[in-house]
């Protein structure tokens, strides 16, 4: 686990109720189709605090691009830079809550958590390989560094 600062990211986004994003992945597919070959990095997402506390909230699925389109539910966005505690979850997303728990413990011991969406970057995923042991998901928890 490490502290880091994300860069500002220009992207196309699809705003989705969390249950729909988990169930279908339809907005990610629609997003990839809209951006096409103009992709400049791996897909990611931002997930409301409420999703973890109340299991209801919104997810924003995003895909970096220099030329974000506007079509249907796909719109341009700027994901602002943020101070994050970051770790990498290895493998399938079943059990990702354990990685979140480890990151949360690290945050409590080393930094101050701040309000804001948790970020994920799907560095390697099903779009890259059908082998789930190769999947890598970076999880970024918003923090304020303490001395």
The CATH class designation is Alpha Beta
In CATH, the topology is named Multidrug-efflux Transporter 1 Regulator Bmrr, Chain A
Helices, by number, come to 4
- Indicate the radius of gyration in whole angstroms: 15 Å
CATH architecture: Alpha-Beta Barrel
Assembly type of the chains comes to single chain
Proportion of beta-strand residues: 35-45%
Classify the secondary structure makeup into a structural class.
alpha+beta
InterPro entries: GyrI-like, Reg_factor_effector_dom_sf
Pfam families: GyrI-like
Domain GyrI-like small molecule binding: 69-143
Protein name: GyrI-like domain-containing protein
Question: What does this entry look like structurally?
Answer:
- Residues 69-143 form the GyrI-like small molecule binding domain.
- InterPro entries: GyrI-like, Reg_factor_effector_dom_sf.
- Strands 1, 2, 3, 4, 5, 6, 7, 8 and 9 form a 9-stranded antiparallel sheet that branches.
- The protein has a single domain, classed as Alpha-Beta Barrel (Multidrug-efflux Transporter 1 Regulator Bmrr, Chain A).
- It is α+β, with helices and mostly antiparallel strands and 147 residues long.
- The chain has helices at 18-24, 26-35, 49-53, 96-110; strands at 2-5, 9-17, 44-47, 58-64, 74-79, 83-90, 111-113, 118-124, 136-145.
- Residues 18-24 have low confidence and may be disordered.
- The chain is globular.
- It is built from 4 helices and 9 strands; from the N terminus they run ββααβαβββαβββ.
- The relative contact order is 0.24.
Summarize this structure briefly.
By secondary structure, the chain is of the alpha+beta class. Helices cover 25% and strands 39% of the residues. The two termini are 17 Å apart.
């Amino acid at each position: 686990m490490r502290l880091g600062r994300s860069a500002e990211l220009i992207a196309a986004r699809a705003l989705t109720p969390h249950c729909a994003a988990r169930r279908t992945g339809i907005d990610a597919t629609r997003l990839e189709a809209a951006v096409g070959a103009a992709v400049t990095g791996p897909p990611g997402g931002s997930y409301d605090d409420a999703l973890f506390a109340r299991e209801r909230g919104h997810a924003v699925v995003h895909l970096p691009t220099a030329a974000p389109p506007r079509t249907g539910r796909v719109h341009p966005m700027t994901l602002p830079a943020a101070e994050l505690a970051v770790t990498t979850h290895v493998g399938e997303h079943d059990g990702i809550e354990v990685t979140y728990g480890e990151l949360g413990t690290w945050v409590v011991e080393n930094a101050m958590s701040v309000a804001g969406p948790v970020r994920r970057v799907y560095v390697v995923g099903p779009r890259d390989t059908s082998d789930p042991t190769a999947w890598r998901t970076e999880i970024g928890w918003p923090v304020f560094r303490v001395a």
